[in-house]
């Protein structure tokens, strides 16, 4: 059974190693990037572990942006070790981040590679829809990304803030 808890500064080195494995062609985050993300007060990061205290086998992060009542969230990353994919770990991490957004009735934004069909299917199954395209978003590969949005639980989006 996978344990989902807070990502800690002690996890940074393990996450940086997972990044190198998973995102070698697209500027994997170094340990310094993870440290900065964890220290930002508007971010929440989660770890997936085989057991409490073990190294992460996956991680995910979301930013909480804007004032109460007009909050938006942005998923910064969600990643699961290559050897652990297809077991529902990504869904558990996504659900944890969506709960953060739901507590604030916030819409959620993300970018995903246009060729990452498993991730796109996961996001669509959680209520995300494609809202646009970012050409050459991922570097250095130059891969394109879809921008996706999931409305707030109330249906509020940036386009219809009064709903």
Automatic annotation (TrEMBL):
PANTHER family assigned to the protein according to its UniProt record, in alphabetical order: AMINOALKYLPHOSPHONATE N-ACETYLTRANSFERASE-RELATED-RELATED
Domain N-acetyltransferase, chain residue ranges per copy: 2-153
Residues in the signal sequence: none
Protein name as annotated: Ribosomal protein S18-alanine N-acetyltransferase
Gene Ontology CC annotations of this record: ribosome
Keywords annotated in UniProt: Acyltransferase, Ribonucleoprotein, Ribosomal protein, Transferase
Keyword Transferase: yes
UniProt keyword annotation of Ribonucleoprotein present: yes
Pfam families hit by this protein: Acetyltransf_1
